[in-house]
Amino acid sequence: MATPRVLDNGAARAAYPAGGAGGPAPGSRARGKRRSVYLAEYAPAWGSAATRGRRAAMEDASAAVPRFAEVPARMLAGARELDALHGVGSAAAAAAAPKLPLHLFAVYDGHGGSEVANYCGGRMHVVLKEALGRAATARAGLEESGERLDIAELWEKVFGGCFQRVDDEVLGQASRFCSGEARCKPVAAGDVGSTAAVAVVCSSHIIVANCGDSRVVLSRGKEPVALSDDHKPDREDERARIEAAGGRVIDWNGHRVSGGQSLHRLAGDGYGKPFLIPTPEIKVISRAKKDDDCLIIAIDELWDVISNVEACKVARLQILQWHWKNNGVCSDGGGVPTISHPAAQAAADYLVKLALMKGSADNITVTVIDLKLRKKTKDKSICFL
Fold it and tell me: Where is the PPM-type phosphatase domain (predicted)?
């Protein structure tokens, strides 16, 4: 199996000391008061698995970047929530709002080669962090002037600009740094591209950006909730967009754009422009602490043979079985989320094996994030939250 990309920007290693950013020290909340989700300490437990399957080469990539950025709570909380959190006026609440650590998980399904998928895996979170910094400053300015920007609209602008920037770099239409030098040249040939399914997770929300036919599914209350819609050429709204741009959707061994790609939203693939676009669809969903079990991000080769219902059931059971067998004891003992957690890893590994057993012959890449708050074991060993 291919080794998933794990990125540590350095901050994650010191991410969770007592009283770290994102909330007060444990035990500091007033007795009888429930801690706000915007103040809760949260460290995701995750696992990622990949295999080239029966293909000659591996063209997928994945990324797990714990605590890749921090944003003010106002990027996700409305004025009313901030008022309730701080008990002060909206302007003062916005200024005093805590910063939420964000954790990024993504899968990239490459085609024509691995260059674009690998580039997205190492670059997307960097561009996103820069875009979030600019957006936080802009939102603060709007609040000072009394203007409001819908949270969903805010994240659409952030992710839209981020995906477009990465696409421009891939195509050589924007400069990128390579070996310390600014270069403006394509990352790969014009027929190489990649889908992108990105999930940003924090204590209060899950934000999903999807571009292509990879999929993000949430297991909530033992029921699957699709947080992304597959981008297929035969989708009614997508067919209309492609035809409006002068393209055609042809049913030739599956629906394809002008007889070529079966995908129509992705990074790279300059030969397919303007029909193939890098514009993601965004969903912002509030977390349900008691009901949310796990999050699954995978490329279409998993979803072609495993339903949302089955995938969620399998992942949930694998995580529970690991904790039951091991009494919740983590072998690393550190509680710092710079490596995968064995329970979530077991779930990702099993999903890949199950897809192979069901006949999936292509590259397969899966990431599972355990969203449950796991209790500490009797021997006080620290486990991922």
Answer: 45-371
> Is-contact 353 301, C-beta < 8 A?
no
Do the Cβ atoms of 352 and 1 come closer than 8 Å? yes
The whole-angstrom distance between residue 70's C-alpha and the CA centroid of its chain comes to 15
Residues 249/242, Cβ–Cβ less than 8 Å: yes
Q: Which domains does the chain have, with CATH numbers?
A: 5-230+282-370 (3.60.40.10)
Whole-angstrom distance, CA of residue 351 vs CA of residue 318: 10
Q: From residue 126, how far is each of 67, 121, 172, 328 by CA, in Å?
A: 12, 10, 18, 33
Tokens of residue 195, six digits: 């889908």
SS3 content of the chain, % helix, strand, coil (to 5): 30, 25, 45
Q: From the centroid of its chain, how far is CA 143?
A: 28
How far lies 123's CA from each of 130, 167, 176, in Å?
Answer: 11, 11, 10
The most distant pair of C-alpha atoms in the chain lies apart, rounded to whole Å, by 65
Give the Cα-Cα-Cα angle 368, 372, 377 (nearest 5 degrees): 110
CB atoms within 10 A of CB 248: 13
- Range of weakest confidence among 99-108, 190-199, 269-278, 329-338: 329-338
- The 10s digit of each residue's pLDDT in 214-239 is 999 999 999 999 999 988 767 777 77
* Beta-strand relationship, 5-6 and 60-72: parallel
Q: How far apart are CA 158 and CA 170, in angstroms?
A: 19
**Which ranges of 203-263 does DSSP label H, i.e. alpha helix?**
236-244
- Distances in whole angstroms, Cα of residue 117 to Cα of each of 188, 190, 197: 10, 14, 11
Instruction: Supply 163's token pair.
Output: 């995906």
Q: How far is residue 131's CA from residue 222's CA, in Å, rounded to a whole number?
A: 35
CB of 167 within 8 A of CB of 180?
no
The tens digit of pLDDT for each residue in 73-117 reads 888 886 666 666 655 445 554 555 678 999 999 999 998 899 999
b/e 104-142 (16+ beta carbons within 10 angstroms → b): bbbbbbbbbbbbbbbbbbebbbbbbbebbeebbeebbee
Taking residue 243's Cβ as centre, other Cβ atoms within 10 Å add up to 12
- pTM here is 0.82
CA distance 327 to 74: 38
Helix (H, G, I), strand (E, B) or coil at 38: coil
